[in-house]
């Protein structure tokens, strides 16, 4: 994990055998400490309040409180706790509500230990922890609907009217790189600016687009065609 620090993880899944299997798998991964396991979303919210984990691995289809609502409650009350969805489902009705609720990662349950560890590390570093299949689904969803005009990364905008919500060309560049999964440091290196400048752009574009975190920014970017894939 980043800087050799231990990442404290909570697991939420209503199926006992799956939950215990995930806990066992995580216990074998270096730099990860499992601090709790919840059988539904309501218990997950309560355990986050008690243990303050760094990351929650969240199933979606659970009794009492489902994963989307649990994610929304956790992110609202504990913004320092990231949520990575780990579910059987990759359909739009599962994916987009989870991202809108504040999840920064999304994996399906065929993910291996290395992929889960990478997603956990990515969200801890401020990037999106999306599996390749989920990134492909976002691109497919983008291609299925007309996108609002936006400049490609590295190209000047023809005019401010082409960008939604008053975004500047530079803010659109930063948003596209967020959608590609880059961290603040990687964006700074790509654009040859300081990390502080990148953070300022991110704060501005978050305010303009009314998104709360990077996962919602990714969904916004794909919704409006600001992904850098036009190059």
TrEMBL record:
Residues bearing the modification 4-aspartylphosphate: 59
Name the UniProt record assigns to this protein: LuxR family transcriptional regulator
Residue ranges of every copy of the Response regulatory domain listed in the record: 8-124
Entry-linked PANTHER family: TRANSCRIPTIONAL REGULATORY PROTEIN NARL-RELATED, TWO-COMPONENT RESPONSE REGULATOR
KW Nucleotide-binding (keyword) present: no
A molecular-function term among this protein's GO annotations: DNA binding
Keywords: DNA-binding, Phosphoprotein, Transcription, Transcription regulation
GO biological processes: phosphorelay signal transduction system; regulation of DNA-templated transcription
Taxonomic source organism: Streptomyces rubellomurinus (strain ATCC 31215)
Domain spans labelled HTH luxR-type: 160-225
Region described as Disordered: 145-164
CDD domains the record matches: LuxR_C_like, REC_NarL-like
């Amino acid at each position: 994990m980043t800087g050799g620090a231990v990442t404290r993880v909570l697991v939420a899944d209503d199926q006992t055998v799956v939950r215990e299997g995930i806990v066992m798998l995580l216990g074998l991964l270096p730099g990860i400490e499992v601090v709790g396991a919840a059988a539904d979303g309501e218990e997950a919210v309560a355990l986050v309040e008690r243990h303050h984990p760094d990351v929650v691995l969240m199933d979606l289809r659970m009794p009492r409180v489902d994963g989307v609502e649990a994610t929304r409650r956790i992110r609202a009350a504990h913004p320092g706790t990231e949520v990575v969805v780990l579910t059987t489902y990759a359909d739009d009705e599962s994916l987009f509500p989870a991202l809108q609720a504040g999840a920064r990662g999304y994996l399906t349950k065929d993910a291996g230990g290395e992929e889960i560890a990478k997603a956990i590390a990515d969200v801890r570093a401020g990037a999106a922890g999306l599996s390749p299949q989920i990134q492909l689904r976002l691109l497919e969803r983008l291609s299925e609907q007309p996108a609002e005009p936006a400049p490609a990364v590295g190209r000047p905008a023809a005019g401010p009217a082409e960008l939604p919500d008053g975004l500047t060309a530079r803010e659109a560049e930063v948003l596209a790189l967020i959608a590609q999964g880059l961290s603040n440091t990687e964006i700074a290196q790509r654009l040859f600016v300081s990390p502080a400048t990148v953070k300022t752009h991110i704060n501005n574009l978050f305010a303009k687009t009314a998104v709360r975190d990077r996962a919602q920014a990714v969904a916004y970017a794909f919704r409006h065609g600001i992904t850098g894939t036009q190059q």
